[in-house]
Amino acid sequence: MQQRLDRVELADGTTVAYASAGAGRPLVYVMGWLTHLERGWELPAERALYEALARGCRLVRYDRAGCGLSAVVDRPASLEFELEQLAAIAAVLDEPFDLMGTSMGAPVAVAWAAARPATVRRLVLYGGWAHGADLSPPGVREHVLGLIASHWGLGSEVLTDIFAPDADRSTRAELARYQRESSSAATARELLTLSYELDVRDRLDHVRAPTLVVHRTGDRAAPLSQAEVLAAGIPRAELVRLPGRSHLPYAGDRDELVRVVRRFLGLGAPRHRTGGLTARQREVAELVSQGCTNREIAARLGITERSAEGHVERIRLRLGLRSRTQLAAWWTAQVG
């Protein structure tokens, strides 16, 4: 699956980059704090999430102003500015759509669905909140914001540990770099400040679309209690609690999250691909089935250990497998 990149322009001249993947009825995905359409598509775990969601529909994502491929702007971050950007994406579609908001995107999606109910078929909220001030104590918030402003490198690492505690060390390092490549420290601080300031509690009972609220019980960035506030305030909302600590939707048990979301949207269970590996990936899969470590695979194929690790991860995600053991079993079944 490939993504298609394009841009829209707001009334004030602000340009916002967006990406489409898949085909069918639209699913607009309002992403969290910092994003980069190209970098996110290059990360195997994140891309696997988007490809799984996009099967049977048209997934539309966008970089908010100041992030990723979207232009840096002088306008301060605000909920109103967030809604203007979402409105520009909606205008491109020119039809009702399913709407999914993750993390900071969840209260933005709530505000949109409450104000423009005719545009939203179904609403999904993952890892979100209704009242940003309740995410953490004031002292913690000020510490994190100060760290971003004074040392963006260290700040991105601390936040990655909060967002994806279940990820391995190399993945966390990659996610920290991803954040720094997505925006400047000033923009990151401003958007995180907005996250703490967002308050959509008075808009919840105006949402009319069927709504699914999904949250991991041990989420370290957004407490489960905020998901409960969302579900209690939105008429007839369904709340699904998933195990796990990671805030990022593509970290932890991504497959279960995708299954729950696709079921609610009426898209059916995602089909795992069982082929389409490159020649190099088939070589790597065979060596994994022989019990080789990444270092041994690298030595056998004349590549770096990091390249070997990347091949294994991409194969596993492409096939929808959770472990090297499952990959070894899959390869044995193919050649047996």
From TrEMBL:
Ranges of residues in domain HTH luxR-type: 270-335
Coiled coil (UniProt feature): none
Entries under InterPro entries matching the protein: AB_hydrolase (IPR050471), AB_hydrolase_1 (IPR000073), AB_hydrolase_fold (IPR029058), Sig_transdc_resp-reg_C-effctor (IPR016032), Tscrpt_reg_LuxR_C (IPR000792), WH-like_DNA-bd_sf (IPR036388)
GO function term, MF aspect, one: catalytic activity
Pfam family, one: Abhydrolase_6
Superkingdom: Bacteria
GO biological process terms held by the UniProt record: regulation of DNA-templated transcription
Alphabetized PANTHER family for the sequence: BIFUNCTIONAL LIPASE_ADENYLATE CYCLASE LIPJ, HYDROLASE, ALPHA/BETA FOLD FAMILY PROTEIN
Protein name: LuxR family transcriptional regulator
Annotated organism of origin: Actinoplanes friuliensis DSM 7358
